[in-house]
Design brief:
Length: about 400
């Protein structure tokens, strides 16, 4: 089983043993938006940028802020000149409260967006060694169907999550979700834990950015070669200024197998790279999905729709797809919550994409996200969202409640 992960295709494979329900608080240390001028290398005479952008305005970087950032491994001048590419062990194995994601304007240009890699590392379907709980028969594959463009009309809350890992430029899928602290004005995005953090053998990924309605018109790979940034990212590039995933994922998660898969979820808070004229992400795309943390039993769910941008063959990561199926159960280990599983042919890159169910009120709600799947595709599994996921979600919301 492979972790469908970022177009790193992380489908995390083997289920990890439940260790605790505590959360890793990923504090926002600083959001540093380097100006376009600074990124282009047009600095002051002393070789140092004098200002940063926080969206629409500019402020001078105080010396004490520079020093504080350096304490967390960020040298503003070095970072904007390419230090974000360096992955030494001390940086990679940061403590959980050291999530830092300075904005580098223009970094995610059309070429980098299109070229996000898919280093999928899977294992055999039989490698589910901890399957001690209730698991239903393997579902029949459901052929993923291409979403009709424009995606903004048919799937406005879906998008791509781009980031850099030691292996290179990567991609996942993600979903805009509501924010209880900011009704109608959410800047929260839901994805898989393995799309923001490498798990027990790594640390936080870098340059995390969300692109809602990526390739909104559904252009082919050939057409995208000449597409402008505004055509590829019509609703802008939104950088993560905070990210949280479960302690279970950080402690147990791995690139292959299913360790930590039952807790493979994450919430990020985003801010627009170029400013949004005061509009939130939810207002910009025109919607956000509520999250259902009651973890409805499989028998109560008639149908789940999973969305994502599959990037591993036979897909190319440029178009949005969906699978719809009645879920079954997958248990990786008896001590961990049982996961949802559906038939679906989507591959790596679809990791982190939202799973949506129509609730009793007739309205859609996010109930899971793509986490793992077999090497040869055919099905996907996602965690059931309970108290751990709810606490994580609420903590990110509260972090920005007064802003």
């Amino acid at each position: 089983m492979r972790s469908i992960r970022p177009s790193l295709t992380a489908r995390r494979g083997r289920g990890g043993r439940r260790t605790s329900t505590s959360l890793t608080a990923v504090a926002l240390v600083s959001v540093l938006a380097l100006t376009a001028t600074a990124c282009a290398g047009d600095d002051n005479a002393d070789g140092k940028p004098s200002a940063v952008s926080t969206g629409d305005g500019k402020i001078t970087i105080p010396d004490d802020l520079r020093h504080r950032l350096k304490e967390h491994g960020i040298d503003v001048d070095k970072w904007k000149n390419g230090a974000w590419k360096n992955w030494n062990r001390d940086d990679w194995l940061r403590e959980a409260n050291d999530f830092i994601n300075p904005i580098i304007k223009g970094l995610w240009d059309p070429d980098r967006m299109r070229g996000a890699d898919d280093p999928d590392q899977g294992v055999d379907d039989n490698d589910i060694s901890g399957d001690q709980g209730v698991t239903d028969p393997t579902p029949q594959p459901v052929q993923a169907r291409a979403v009709t463009p424009p995606y903004h009309t048919s799937a406005a809350t879906s998008g791509k999550l781009l980031f850099d890992a030691p292996e290179g430029t990567m991609v996942c899928s993600a979903t805009v979700v509501t924010d209880p602290a900011h009704p109608g004005k959410s800047n929260l995005v839901w994805t898989a834990g393995h799309c923001v953090h490498a798990g027990k053998k790594g640390g936080w990924y870098r340059n995390l950015a969300f692109v809602p309605s990526y390739n909104d018109q559904g252009m082919s790979a050939a057409e995208l070669e000449n597409a402008s940034r505004s055509e590829i990212a019509p609703y802008g590039v939104w950088w993560a200024d905070a990210a949280k995933t479960s302690q279970q994922w950080i402690s147990k998660g791995g690139e292959t197998g299913g360790d930590g898969a039952s807790y493979d979820f994450a919430v990020i808070h985003v801010t627009p790279e170029q400013g949004s004229g005061g509009k939130s992400l939810e207002e910009t795309v025109g919607g956000a999905l509520p999250v259902d943390f009651d973890a409805p039993a499989v028998s109560q769910v008639q149908s789940i729709t999973a969305s994502g941008y599959p990037a591993a063959a036979p897909y190319d990561g440029q178009r949005l797809y969906q699978c719809q199926d009645k879920p079954g159960r997958l248990s990786i280990e008896q001590s961990d919550p049982t996961m949802y599983r559906i038939g679906c042919t989507m591959t790596g890159g679809s990791s982190g994409g939202g799973w949506v169910e129509t609730g009793a009120d007739g309205k859609p709600a996010l109930v899971s996200n793509t986490s793992i799947g077999p090497v040869r595709s055919g099905w996907l599994a996602g965690p059931r969202l309970g108290e751990v996921a709810k606490s994580l979600y609420e903590s990110v919301s509260k972090q920005f409640a007064g802003r």
